[in-house]
Automatic annotation (TrEMBL):
<dbReference type="InterPro" id="IPR001421">
    <property type="entry name" value="ATP8_metazoa"/>
</dbReference>
<dbReference type="Pfam" id="PF00895">
    <property type="entry name" value="ATP-synt_8"/>
</dbReference>
<dbReference type="GO" id="GO:0015986">
    <property type="term" value="P:proton motive force-driven ATP synthesis"/>
</dbReference>
<dbReference type="GO" id="GO:0015078">
    <property type="term" value="F:proton transmembrane transporter activity"/>
</dbReference>
<dbReference type="GO" id="GO:0045259">
    <property type="term" value="C:proton-transporting ATP synthase complex"/>
</dbReference>
<keyword id="KW-0813">Transport</keyword>
<dbReference type="GO" id="GO:0031966">
    <property type="term" value="C:mitochondrial membrane"/>
</dbReference>
<keyword id="KW-0496">Mitochondrion</keyword>
<protein>
    <recommendedName>
        <fullName>ATP synthase complex subunit 8</fullName>
    </recommendedName>
</protein>
<keyword id="KW-1133">Transmembrane helix</keyword>
<keyword id="KW-0375">Hydrogen ion transport</keyword>
<keyword id="KW-0812">Transmembrane</keyword>
<keyword id="KW-0066">ATP synthesis</keyword>
<comment type="similarity">
    <text>Belongs to the ATPase protein 8 family.</text>
</comment>
<keyword id="KW-0138">CF(0)</keyword>
<dbReference type="InterPro" id="IPR050635">
    <property type="entry name" value="ATPase_protein_8"/>
</dbReference>
<feature type="transmembrane region" description="Helical">
    <location>
        <begin position="6"/>
        <end position="24"/>
    </location>
</feature>
């Protein structure tokens, strides 16, 4: 069965994985986000109970 032959596909997978992890990923991780999250205080919303018409 030729689909079980790992010779061409293993090399392609390894090469693409190394390309991503050694070249592309450090370039993507070096970007700084433009909108940094701000420290906001958590505001609690007051919820009212629902008045069911059938009770």
């Amino acid at each position: 069965m030729p689909q079980l032959n790992p010779n061409p596909w293993l090399f392609i997978m390894t090469l693409s994985w190394l390309t991503f992890s050694l070249i592309i990923q450090p370039k993507l991780l070096s970007f700084t986000p433009t909108n940094t999250p701000s420290e906001k205080t958590a505001t609690s919303t007051k919820t009212l109970p629902w008045s069911w018409p059938w009770t």
